[in-house]
Amino acid sequence: MKRCRTILITSCKGGVGKSTVTANLGYYLAEAGSRVLLVDCDFSNRCLDLILGAESSGLYDISDVCRGTVPMSVASVADRRSSGLFSVSAPYLDPFSPDDSIPEEESFKAALETAARDMELDYILIDTPGALGKPLELASSVSDTALIVSTHHPTALRAADSSASALYSLGLRNCFLIINEFDAESVLVGNRVGIIEMIEKAVLPTIGIIPFSEEFAIGGEHGQLASDLDCRNVTSAFRNIAARISGNSVPLFKGWKNISRKKLLTR
Ligand SMILES: Nc1ncnc2c1ncn2[C@@H]1O[C@H](COP(=O)(O)OP(=O)(O)OP(=O)(O)O)[C@@H](O)[C@H]1O
Ligand SMILES: [Mg+2]
Description:
Elements lengths: L4 E6 L7 H14 L4 E5 L7 H4 L10 H6 L4 H4 L1 E2 L6 E4 L16 H14 L4 E5 L6 H9 L2 E6 L3 H16 L5 E8 L1 H5 L6 H7 L4 E6 L2 H7 L11 H14 L15 H6 L1
Parallel strand pairs: 1-5, 1-6, 2-4, 2-5, 6-7, 7-8
Antiparallel strand pairs: 3-4
């Protein structure tokens, strides 16, 4: 039986691109031949279905699977772009007793293990909310790796360090940094430090850099992934991260066009 890896995507800072990274990374892992399930664990603010353009497709959510109402193969929605990509929504939190809507650790673990076996999954990616708390604890209890998303703003990088500390104390040590919304222009004009200095300052090993793209931001509002758009550097960035997660060594800016690698690295 093949081994399924479970990877959580987090940051204790909101709005840095966790859900966007989860959806697009899942797509590019599937594009490379893997079978991937995306699990939305942002119980108070689910949005993966919107980013994937699948908001009216799912009748069930992860809590239905944990309760045993339906198997994951029924609760999950197959992506319209890729035959290897599936997603399952988070339930809406009951505002009067929010914790009741969060699955118990044991049933969550059992649901994911059964799904991995029955759906022959290679990867489960778990999207978490922009805060420490019960959803992150739940996700870390089943994950072997964490991808911590940050922009290159100092406040976001500090939040990434705090997330790593929290994950360490929850027993998850295999943590990597993704720098999202990277603005090459600001580095080239000297407003920001070069990549090498940024990577050296970060506590975590960097697994990838994703450029800022207006087209990608607008596409995300309409259920479009990078693959639906003409965002060459964003696509390359996700392909590179997917390859690194699969154990391949890939140059940092492989496939990026119209950038001065040397200037970006050493500025
Ligand atoms: N590389 C990028 N370039 C441009 N816009 C981006 C990029 N990544 C994410 N965004 C945009 O940033 C916004 C926030 O993204 P997203 O919802 O994925 O963040 P989040 O960290 O999941 O937020 P939350 O903490 O609320 O869950 C969205 O409008 C998204 O389209
Ligand atoms: Mg999110």
